[in-house]
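Q: Hi! First time doing this. I have a protein sequence and I read that you can turn it into a structure. Is that right? Here it is:
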Amino acid sequence: MRAQPTFNNEVSIVLCGEAGQGIQTIETVLTGTLKASGLHVFATKEFMSRIRGGSNSTSIRAATSPVRAYAERIDLCVLLDRDAYPWLRPRISPETLVIGDPAVFADVEGLLPLPLTELAQQVGEKIYANAIACGFVTALLGLEPTALEATLQQMFDSDRDVLAKNLRAARLGRERGEAAVSKKQLTCRIEADAGVTGQLFLNGSQAVGLGAIAGGCNFIGSYPMSPSTGVLQFLASYAERFGILVEQAEDEISAINMGLGSWYAGGRAMVSTSGGGFALMGEGISLAGGMESPMVIHLAQRPGPATGLPTRTEQGDLDLALYAGHGEFPRAILAPGTLEDAFDCARQAFAMADASQSPVILLTDQYLLDSSYNVPQLPIPAAPHEHRIVETAANYRRYALTESGLSPRGIPGYGRGLVCADSDEHDQAGFITERSEVRVAMVDKRLKKLALLRGEAAVPHRLFGPKNHRRLLVGWGSTRPAIEEARARVNDPETAFLYCPQVYPLTAAVQQLLLRAQRLIVVENNATAQFARLIQRETGRLADADWLQYDGLPFSVENLETRLRQEVCS
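A: Yes, that's right. Below is the predicted 3D structure, encoded as structure tokens:
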């Protein structure tokens, strides 16, 4: 016998079905409706690598206050196909309200019946089961029907017949939902926040793309590869508006070489790829280091090795980003943990690459890119980006030795000088050399730039919790929201959380915090504690504990809360 739920301040909704049933459409409609109703909304996906079949789900949290992390708890579970129930069974509790078609789930105890097949046939096609489910859920939550209808009108306004059928399907679902509320005496107390309706609702790919635009990106060359393709698609959709040249390259080697050509000519280029594609770019990254060319590479992580789990998430490519490319040369790695940080890191990646004349790698993952939530604002810069290009004189030397290691960067056609660049070792003018003393001088010159990257981080670290802590949790990238929420739930006065969006090189301030920690716990989505090993390499500080997860799923708030409570009580 299932308990009758009461939704106070937050509700967690999961909808699950096979690929092709329109799970993404349901997510879009429901998140739009919830936000339009004044609720803070978070949504993330779990989907299989197939066109049809499998079990795909979307998890949505709607709350009175901001929510930004994945939670295992399910309050409302909508089952759309036969395999959905066994797939979600580990997350379903006695308090979960399970909703499904009784013709399919007759054996599920305590099922709240919703005859999707029968109602969809009344509308005309089974695809309208999506709108029926949305109508049913919004009725259970006590939302005004106008919010759902407005969302459907926005989505299907171009086809009057399809819009009319979706509206009818939503009303049929709502009628069944209202009857269920009356019969089951369900209670929903989630107060709306009037400020939410005017906020942005973004996913990670959009945030990265917007940050690239703010950073002055005017060229992207990429070969499509999940989960990085969303950034390429987003920038392509705004190419004409913002003057961006988009090239779907024949492979990743071509893409990065095109990007280097763009920077050489005075452009601001980015490539977007995932692990296997990034591996192919290794020679191009080394070329950027040798040419001392700026370059921005977006590396969207997914579980490997090989094809691995192409639609799941992991933080397994930090070592790959850190060591990619033969030879020794500086680079920076930024790993955003929120959508605001994804915007800011993408924007700052262009400034850092330009300022240091080095490759900058933007490290994201599937979970961050495919998660969505409302954000009040993005950190739009007060001034436009700065171009660090000089007009060349007749005696211009592209690789002139300087105290900082940075030489004035010219581009062909801007001034009287010759802008010489090649992949061989070169002298100050850029001409090939094999003289040992020149080689040593050029290696030292390039490595000096690491000090610039190690200075004050463009996207600074954050410390959550007490300054005088005994226990320090350390996270990077997309682990931030779950760690932040878990720490707040436990509210231990001796525990703080250090979040590092610049994972390499570590700044002096971050190193000091790491060295002062009495007990250091590093949280990351991989099997070998890659960031913990980087910390040890950079500071000599060995982590006291590594909290690792590498099953293709993100950390849940509950998982981290449980681990932290055990840690605090031990």
